[in-house]
């Protein structure tokens, strides 16, 4: 993304790339390259917007460009292993939520025991776009075990959002 543009316009451009009609590996690489250029301040904001857009692009690319989905998935998996700052980890979890990638469900489940309530809530919310057979059992078990109200709210919102979108009733 052109660094001569304002920060807001670069963030808008990143968000717009997720909606291109034919997602491609090149588009995914452009977004991920921008996401990797995280600095501080405004640069970090643009990098976060690019990562969130890459997650959404990965979701749209599942049928149109599986290679782009694989590229995004690999980046998100790498980030889960390497992120040290809570803020960066939470953006990565949100990008996974945008992707709805069932291959990342087990990675999300590992954050059920995070010391950070905020991270647990982000992980719970990241299940929101996954297929019901993947997310519903994981979240209902988590809901049973979770004691923090912010996390239980995130779990409940993810479940209700997905059930509403799929027009299905919850399983017993």
How would you describe the overall organization of this protein?
This protein is an all-alpha fold. Helix content is 72%, strand content 0%. The radius of gyration is 16 Å and the shape is globular. The chain starts with 6 loop residues before the first helix and ends in a 6-residue tail after the last helix.
Kindly state the number of beta strands: 0
Give the ordered list of helices and strands. Answer: HHHHHHHHH
Give the N-to-C terminal Cα separation. 48 Å
Question: Any low-confidence stretches, pLDDT <50, length ≥5?
Answer: none
Structural class: mainly alpha
Q: If you average the pLDDT, what whole number results?
A: 91
Give the percentage of residues in beta strands.
under 5%
Main sheet characteristics: none
Rough shape? globular
The helix fraction, in percent, is over 70%
- Roughly how many Å is the radius of gyration? 16 Å
Give me the number of helical elements. 9
In short:
With 172 residues, the protein is an all-alpha fold. Helices cover 72% and strands 0% of the residues.
Secondary structure: elements and pairs:
Blueprint: H1 7-17, H2 25-36, H3 42-64, H4 66-82, H5 86-99, H6 105-109, H7 117-126, H8 132-145, H9 149-166
Helix pairs in contact: 1-3, 2-3, 2-4, 3-4, 3-5, 4-5, 5-7, 7-9, 8-9
Task: Record keyword descriptors for this entry.
172 residues, mainly alpha
């Amino acid at each position: 993304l052109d660094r001569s543009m304002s920060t807001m316009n670069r963030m808008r451009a990143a968000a717009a790339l997720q909606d291109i009609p034919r997602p491609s590996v090149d588009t995914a690489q452009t977004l991920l390259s921008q996401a990797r250029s995280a600095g501080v301040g405004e640069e970090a904001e643009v990098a976060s917007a690019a990562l969130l857009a890459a997650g959404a692009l990965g979701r749209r690319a599942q049928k149109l460009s599986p290679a782009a989905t694989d590229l995004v998935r690999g980046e998100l998996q790498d980030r889960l292993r390497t992120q040290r700052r809570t803020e960066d980890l939470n953006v990565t979890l949100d990008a996974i939520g945008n992707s709805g990638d069932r291959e990342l469900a087990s990675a999300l489940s590992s954050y059920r025991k995070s010391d950070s309530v905020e991270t647990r809530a982000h992980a719970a919310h990241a299940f929101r776009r996954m297929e019901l057979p993947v997310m519903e059992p994981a979240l209902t078990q988590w809901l049973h075990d979770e004691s923090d109200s912010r996390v239980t709210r995130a779990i409940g919102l993810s479940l209700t959002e997905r059930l509403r979108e799929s027009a299905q009733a919850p399983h017993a």
